[in-house]
Design brief:
The chain is built from 14 helices and no strands. α5 runs parallel beside α13. By secondary structure, the chain is mainly α.
């Protein structure tokens, strides 16, 4: 048992290191060949006030005058020691910027992830239990419509209805404007987070609902369910005893592996609502050529998605005893 656990952990660790190196290399090459001039983006509106000598000093200060390979080796060696560099936009260490922004984003993504998982799974079960009835058609119509809608469009629609027309929620920002952070209450933070979280949830419900519905339809058409019906089992008892256990594993896997889509949706949602999270920092870093911050957020997003897949594996083993005993499904 101990050897199997050590081998499993070592295998995962090797995969993680390989993934981070590949993501770092590809990201560094793409950023280095991007058409955005990082020095010009760093200077911004003061471009005409900066002399060529000062521009050269800025280039040398950030190490942009060195070859791409040398810069990558220097960045990797510093990252191994825990130094991801200094953000050119915020003038702070990259790890501090990521940590501060991630605390805002994790609350948003966690609430949206839980809400979409619970509502999506419930909607899929209800649709499959009432197959080809009006409830099933309503759930499928909703899922197909939302699945074909971009996240930013859904966000703009909710923003216009609930913030502009009904005035139930604030239009933007994570806290009230003009209030210092020490005076902001938890109720105000939650009030500002509801609409962005609702946007992410509305989009995330569709895949889990459609997947759960189809899996439960297949289970209800199987031979052992036909045998259970012949014994007199019907309705909720039939679905509870023979359906939910068999569709729980695919639903859990799909929900945990959706961390990548969740992070990508958070990037667009935070931009629409001007929510001060990691997604908004990523877009600012890309538009203004902040190479250290962009590479740091890319690495962190890869680590975030890997953690989701790793948790899915652990939950899978916990739910299904056959995997703990090393048997195939």
């Amino acid at each position: 048992m101990a050897k199997r656990l050590i081998r499993y952990t070592a295998n995962k660790l090797i995969r993680l290191l390989t993934l981070l190196f590949a993501v770092s290399l590809v990201s560094f090459i793409l950023v280095s060949n991007a058409p955005i001039d990082p020095v010009q983006a760093y200077i911004g509106a003061d471009l005409m006030k900066v002399s060529p000598e000062q521009r050269q000093q800025i280039t040398e200060y950030w190490g942009l005058d060195k070859p791409v390979g040398e810069r990558f080796v220097h960045w990797v060696s510093a990252a191994i020691h825990g130094n991801l560099g200094t953000s050119m936009i915020y003038r702070e260490p990259v790890d501090e910027v990521i940590k501060e922004r991630f605390f805002s984003s994790i609350a948003l993504m966690s609430s949206a992830w839980l809400l979409s998982g619970i509502v999506g799974f419930t909607a899929g079960v209800v649709a499959a239990a009432h197959r080809d009835r009006w409830v099933d058609r309503l759930v499928k119509w909703y899922c197909y419509t939302v699945a074909a809608s971009p996240t930013f469009w859904v966000g703009l629609l909710l923003l216009m209805v609930f913030a502009v027309w009904l005035d139930w929620f604030p239009v933007a920002l994570g806290v009230p404007a003009g209030v210092i952070s020490e005076q902001v209450t938890w109720g105000e933070r939650i009030h500002h987070m509801i609409l962005p979280a609702l946007t992410l949830s509305v989009v995330g419900i569709a895949p889990i609902a459609l997947h759960t519905r189809q899996k439960l339809v297949d289970v209800l058409a199987s031979d052992y369910v036909l045998f259970a019906r012949a014994r007199g089992e019907r309705g909720t008892r039939l679905i509870w005893r023979h359906g939910l256990r068999n569709i729980a594993l695919p639903a859990v896997t799909l929900q945990f592996t959706a961390f990548g889509e969740l992070f990508g949706g958070a990037v667009l949602t935070e931009q629409v609502f001007s929510y001060p999270g990691l997604g908004q920092a990523t877009i600012e870093a890309g538009l203004r050529g902040d190479v250290p911050l962009l590479l740091g957020t890319v690495l962190f997003s890869a680590l975030f998605v890997f953690a989701g897949n790793f948790l899915a594996d652990l939950v899978y083993r916990w739910v299904d005893p056959r995997l703990r005993r090393g048997r195939s499904i």
